[in-house]
Amino acid sequence: MYRISDEQRRIRLGRRHLLAPSVRTGSVVAVADAVVALHATDAATVYLSVCARMTEPGIGAVDHALYEDVSLVRLLSMRNTLFSMSAEVAPAIDASSARPVAAKERQKLLKHLREDANGLDEQWLADTERQTLSALATRGRATGSELSAAVPALRTKITIFPGTRQETVQGVASRVIRVLAADGRIRRDRPRGSWTSSQFRWTTAAPWPESDPAEARTEVAGRWLRSYGPATEGDLKWWTGWGIRETRAALAAASAEEVLLDSGAFGWAAPGDLAAEPAPEPWAALLPGLDPSAMGWADRDFQLPADHRAALFDRSGNIGPTVWWNGGIVGGWAQRPDGELVWRLLSDIGREGSQLIEAEAARLSAWTGDARVTPRFRTPLERELTG
């Protein structure tokens, strides 16, 4: 069986994820496609992840892709998480991952409605959705608060988990909007405030055309292997949130080739993607929390020393801002309230590595300007550095 070393996996990451300076790009869409999809739970992450991989980083290019030509779209998809991906990749991710998530979101909301003492049902939800879409079409774009003001039904309160210790009263507006967004009937438009804000306005949208889920999973698996392979079956299962049967079927349909990894585990590579690659030039990167280069695998041992984990992850398993050197995670970084970028190395990488990290920090500071970025998921090292 062909063996692919951890060093080769790190070399592939630097080149395929567009992190080495010689392979950076001027296209936002090319960045998204290089990593299949960008984590978008934290609004700032999309900008930080894209600009780390661009020859000329800047807010304007990402804004244009998200809100002008909409070549970059957001979907609640893998692992019930918000991702941004290119419009070309979106139909496959929609069919393979977003549709099942949307169905579960709708069923969850309907369950809460039926359990409420007001006796709300599926017809009430359909009527409320129709009124919400009509109000949004009239306004063009609106925040959740503005939609609630325009649609009285959105101001309805329901009791969640009645009769239990978790019983609480909540408004339905955010839940109805979440279901409409998951169904692809509305989408996030420009936020109120800067690019770091998550207070989005909403606008109407058309759902993606239906396609065969199995074919879509095959396409997604193939793209993921070309970006993240070689990797294990467990890595793909974790990244997508699919069941084990769907994962194995997708790997087989994508003609994945089995390889041996340095860990002794069996991995999978894209068909014909076995040859060793030359290392790019030495490179460093400052990547944001939840960046795809850190979140592409369940098993990150080839890039992340075990003794770094406690400092770089929160209690839920979310990775914070990271410092990279030649495909490995060697530290973490943060931005202080006064705007200063600070970092701490957890590995000794020598003078050349330290100098390149300083250059990347200067590059990051130059395009972020006066913006202040605080990760939604804060980690021990990030908190310590900002304190």
UniProtKB/TrEMBL annotation:
Keywords: DNA-binding. PANTHER family: LMO0824 PROTEIN, WINGED HELIX DNA-BINDING DOMAIN-CONTAINING PROTEIN. It holds the Pfam family AlkZ-like. One of its GO terms (molecular function) is DNA binding. InterPro entries: AlkZ-like (IPR009351). It comes from the Bacteria. It comes from Streptomyces mutomycini. This is Winged helix DNA-binding domain-containing protein. The keyword DNA-binding applies.
